[in-house]
Amino acid sequence: MAEEKRFRIGYALLPKKQNSFIRDSLVNLARSRGIDLIRVDPNRSLTDQGPFDCVLHKLYDDDWKRQLTDFTVKYPNVVVLDSPESIERLHNRILMLQVVSELNVDDQSETFGILKQIVIYDKDTLFDRRNWEALKFPVIAKPLVADGSAKSHKMALVFNHDGLNSLKPPVVVQEFVNHGGVIFKVYVAGERVRCVKWKSLLDVGEDELVSNLATDERTDDRYYKMMHLDDTEMPPLSFITQIAQGLRRVMRLNLFNFDVIQDSRCGNRYLIVDINYFPGYAKMPGYETVLTDFFCDVFCMKQQWGEDCSENAGFDSVMGNKDVRQIMSNTCCGDGDEGGLQVSPLSVEEKDSSVQV
C-alpha cells in the first residue's frame, strides 16, 4: 500500500510571531489533515533544508531575501507565501491604499474608498498650514513605514494644529471619520475570508472640537462598556469578499487583513483604512481551521498542477478565482470547525491636544 502523501510547510518567522501563530492547536489540526509544519532553522542556509512543498515566511532582512531567491532558483516548484516584492508594497501606507483605486466591485448597494490623507515628510511641512487645506481636524496620524514593528502600529488622534507638536515625521495623516466606534477586521487566507468586528476609537463630538481637547470620558473603560457591539450590523459578506479577493488579485498576496470602517455620514459607504501582511491570525476565532483549510487549498493546487505549480505557473490565479462567502470545508484534507466572534477594545491615552492610540 502506497504511503500517504504529506504536505510539508517550512515556516520562517520571528520568535514573537512564531509563538503567537504556531500554536499546538494549529500544528495538531494541520497534522491530522496531512500537513506538517516544520520550523526553518535560521542558523542554516534555507537551500540546505527541506524538502518543502511550501515556504511560509514573515522576514524582511536582505539576507533572508537573498536566501529565498537562491531557494526558489534551486526549487522552482515550491510555493512561497508570499513574494517579498508583493509584500514590500504594504510597508508604505500610501502605496498600500493606492491599490484600492484599482478595485472593481459589482455590488451596487454599498460603496467603498479610502480616507482623505496627506504625507508629512518633515517638520517644516508639518506646520505649513497650506498643506492642511484638504483635511479637517480631527485627524489620525500614523508612521509612514508599516513594517509590522510595534512602532509602526502607533497612532495619534490629533484635534488641532497644537496637537501636531507631538508628531514625528515621516507620517501619514488621515482625516478622522466618525464610524460608531467599531472597526471591521477582514482576514484573508487565500480564497478564505472572515470578517470580525472590534471596538475602535469613539466618535468625536462637536464639543470636543470646540474645546480642542479629548475628554477623560473618551479614555474611560466604562464608556467602552456602554457600547453594544453586538448591535452593530456586519457589512454584507458578499461585498466584503469581493473587496478581499480584489485586493488579493491586485496585490498578489494570499495572507493579509484589512481594516474597514462604516462612514456614519453615509451608512452604505465603507472606508478601507489599513492593510497588513500576515496579521495576527490567532486573534481570529477558529483561525486554526481557516489556515489549515487554506494550506489544504495550496496542497490541492499542487496536486492539480503537478510539479509545475510555482507562482509563475499560476498559483495566484488558481487560488483567487472563487468567490468564497464563508469558511468552507470541501478541501482535499477533510473538514474543520467554525469559530465564534472575537471582540477586542482599543485602549487610548489622552495627551495634550492629541490622543495616542
From TrEMBL:
Residues that hold Mg(2+) 1 according to the record: 259, 274
Record-listed Mg(2+) 2 binding positions: 274, 276
Keywords: ATP-binding, Kinase, Magnesium, Metal-binding, Nucleotide-binding, Transferase
Residues binding 1D-myo-inositol 1,3,4-trisphosphate: 17, 58, 153, 185, 276, 280
Location of the Inositol-tetrakisphosphate 1-kinase N-terminal domain: 8-87
Alphabetical list of SUPFAM superfamilies matching this protein: Glutathione synthetase ATP-binding domain-like
GO biological process, one term: inositol trisphosphate metabolic process
EC number of this enzyme: 2.7.1.134
Comment on bound cofactor: Binds 2 magnesium ions per subunit.
Residues where ATP binds: 93, 142, 174-185, 200
Known catalytic reactions: 1D-myo-inositol 3,4,5,6-tetrakisphosphate + ATP = 1D-myo-inositol 1,3,4,5,6-pentakisphosphate + ADP + H(+)
Subunit structure: Monomer.
Name recorded for this polypeptide: Inositol-tetrakisphosphate 1-kinase
Species this protein is from: Glycine max (Soybean)
Lineage: Eukaryota, Viridiplantae, Streptophyta, Embryophyta, Tracheophyta
